[in-house]
Specification:
This protein is of the alpha/beta class. Helix 31 packs parallel to helix 32 (739-751) and helix 34 packs parallel to helix 35 (824-834).
Amino acid sequence: MWKSEDKPLEDKIIQKVMECVEMDRITKEIQEKEDTEYYLVWQRCFLALDFRNNVIKKFQTIEDPNSILDEYVDLNKRFSELIIVNFQHSLKERECEILATGTAHTEIISKRAESSTSIKRLFNPKHGAIPQTVVLQGAAGIGKTTMAKKIMLDWASQKLYQDKFNYVFYIYCREMNLHTESEKSSIAEIISKQCPSNYSEKAIQFILKNEKKLLFIIDGFDELRYSFDQPEDSHCFDPWHKEPIRIILKNLFQKNLLPESSLIITTRPIALQTLRRCLEYPHFFQILGFSREEREKYFSNFFKNKDQATQVLSFVKQNDTLFTMCVIPLVSWIICTVMKQEMERGIDLQKLPCTLTAIYMLYLSSLLKFHHKESKQDVQRKLKGFCSLAAEGIWKQQILFREEEVKKHGLDQDDFFPLFLNQNIFKQDINCIQTFSFFHLSFQEFLAALLYVLEDRKKWQSQNPKRNLPTLLHRHSIYFESVFAVGFRFLFGFLNEEKRMRELTKDFKWKISCTNKELLLDWVKNNINRKIYKIDLNWITQDNHVLYLYNSFHRRIHFYLEKEILSYLYETQDENFVRNALCAITEINYHCDSDMELIILAYCLQHCQNLEYLYVQSPTSRYQADNELFLPKNEVHSHLVNLQMDWKPFILDEGYMEHFFKSLTKLRNLRILRLENLHFTRSCSRQLAEIFKTNRKLKELNLILEDTNLSSMDFLCEALEDPYCKVETLELSGGVMTKYCSRELAEVFRRNQKLKNLKLYLYDIDDRTVEILCKGLQHPDCKVEKLWLSGEFVTEFCSRHVAEVFRRSQTIRALWLVLKYPKDRPFRMLCEGLQHSACKVEEFGLFGKYLDKYCSRHLAEVLRKNQRLRKLWLWIEGSKVEMVELLCAGLQHPDCKIEKLCIHEGFLSNSSSSDFLEVLKRLRELQLFLCSLDENVEEMLCEGLQHSECKIEKLRLEGRFLKESFCESFAEILRKKTRLRELDLLSNDTNKKAVKMLCEGLKHPNCNVEKLGLGGKFLTKFFSSHLSDVFRKHQTLKELQLFPINNIDTVVEMLCEGLKHSDCKLEVLRINGEYLEVLCGHSLPFGRQIARIVTINQNLRKLYLHGDCISDYETKLLCEELKHSRHKLKELW
């Protein structure tokens, strides 16, 4: 429309108009030019200025949540910057969805501000592309709406996005909910409602014409009550076309409508999955709350009196819990509000409570005492009405209430009304709609929880029979719903009647229910050990090849109901209740992501008198995991560089750490302690040393330490050397591997006569450190029997000293080496140590990326010359034919004494049939991990196993081997009278025909298998009938071990069916829950079901239940059942 040579004047007009200067002169100048086009430019710029002024007027002030007299505060003065980080698509996203409305509020720490981005950089290019859609996700109360309003204000005030957007529109999802499903609108109509009244349709058309310069802020996507999953939704491309609001928003999200416009969408994590399906190439960011500095700024801005601000901030900083909770903006506001009110009353701040329930209770008490004029009876009645309204909203997932819904609970608009409900007035066509909402969802959950502690809640529950507390608890434990997650904290907080309910009981004569405490206590005991597991078996996938790494710990990526429960127990601040709830817990796995979580853990640990296993992990680790050893060589350097660039230190507060270690001294039954990525102080080490000296049951210690100072290591090592220290297994990695610390550790190896198992991760380590450690290991007084070495220690200098350990140690019987790319000379030195006549190693495991022909030749020499070596684990990725030939030559040499071999299919695929057959003639035990069973491997394996000279007595197959052709051949092997006595089958795939063939072989009269292990996809409902037939017909089967991965009810059903027959000769039953992914509620208590099995089969003599297949509570049920039943069981573990 405009000519290019006129562009400078256009820019000049826009600049002057936006700066609101020289308006009269510019207007006169344009009028004198008598140029209609220039006049239009001026007019549009003036309209834009009018729009900006309208935005400033609307957003420059905000109303406090508890304001009842239209009291407003300046947004710029109240606002503090929030930590915003790039949101990664990972297992953490799912964890946030589960915890977001609950403990996610306490997981945020201010130190993460170092890696924070800012509002200004949300649209910065990423991977060369400028994002059009930005998603800001964060928990309830984290400040999403305030940030959205601040973006609007800053843009209108020319502080933000001036070159990027000409117009910014704010769409509040609560307001969108007021439109019915059938009510239609258009994006043009939505825009026009936000423009000043002097905006004509032509002006709206002009705005829409330059859509690239438009930004829409969609605030509160999670609050939308519309479903976005309806595939039949029509597409909308015309901004003037009217459709239901759901369709308009969906097309705006999917870029069908105004495809070049930009979006900022705020949401709670619970709605992320739904939102992601609606968006095109979104960029995700997470709002974590206030940094330490911004917390201080918020307090300073809140109090007009600076002396008061300083006093409150000083008090809150002294109270660990309060200051940590202030990371959440909403909690900061509540604390500031309550503190201000209490100071005005002359209350001593040191006497104020510190839990979330206590803060909300104090806030409620303040409202009831100082903001109403009604009688106590009216207050009591109306407060219960608000509680029932809140509870109904929770069950319906509703936060906006129409007037008739409010009146249904006996509530009228009076002076008492605005204390709890905000009035919202929204435009709808030519009318206005009035709705009401609690000032925040957390306060709604607080009141809903309060309803459940009242004695006369029965009236409400009789009208809503499916909404009682047991139902709520059941849903939370089975489905792990995030709905009401904060409310559960309040429920437990209310249990402390002395601290929480005393004032309300005294002032308003409330009657508190006594049944809740027993109900919640039972729920905790039944659920504290129930977990959802997803086992990470360290499968490294590369070039369609999977390598399974054996590790002393299966690293589990998990979500814990247990973690939630600990936060609930902390909320009670009732030591007797917590002690009773945790008395039976024996294991805690805890990922500590914040100072607050460390406080919670420390509090609960003091009451875990029977705890045997504790694993605490801090989120940031500087050292790569074992699986990083198997990156391609050309990627290793760039990976390590990126690792160093991305690494940010995460340090838990020193004071909290010391309190945590002090709590560890109370654990008298602890057997295994694993601490990962914690920063030890001298005081922490002193407390840990006290544990070693006083806890005679602690047998295993695993420490991954970062930046631990020298004096701390002095205390730690001195404690490990103490004669009273009973630690037998020690795992060390991290920043402790320095030259100074190695001297202390070497002394530990020499002096600690109990130490039998040692695992060392040697990364970023110098030669001198390795030398010192080796001198300790080869000392005659060192009693280490099992040694695991992983890392970068295979240099010529280091290998010489490590080899000396192999030669001189009189106790090391098992050795595992995890090596990256061993070179010829250093590896030869290691092998010379292993093949020395004085070497006592009987079991050897080698894990690595690649062995060249020279290293393979050295290893083959070890197999030939080491006459003590009986077991060999080989997990070498990229096995080459030449390597396999050399190793097979070593294995089949007459002097080789190897009896057990554990390998993966790469070894088989690169070996000849004749070589492998010769190897099988010498082995007693074979373990194979099969990723994909090709024809050559299948043929070779079956040929070898059925050969008359094959001596295999124990066979274990893992992975994908359920091929019909293989199972048919293997079943034929089972029918022959082979030497095979023990068979483990753990399959990752399913094939009904293949399983049926295997079962036919297993139940054949000639099958000699006496011990059978089954796991993976075998233990499903379909296979249960075939397997139960095996148990009945297989007369030689004496021992059965099961590794379930799914609902254990299927396993129990199969056992009951198979073991009930008198022909079943099974004597030993083992159920191992190590690989159990989901342990759901059983149709009957599991303990009773197992007792039923034991009663049915009178041949059963031994029963072993390991891992997570049975909780402590169900173990008690099992024992009770066995006391009153007839059985022949002699051992129960």
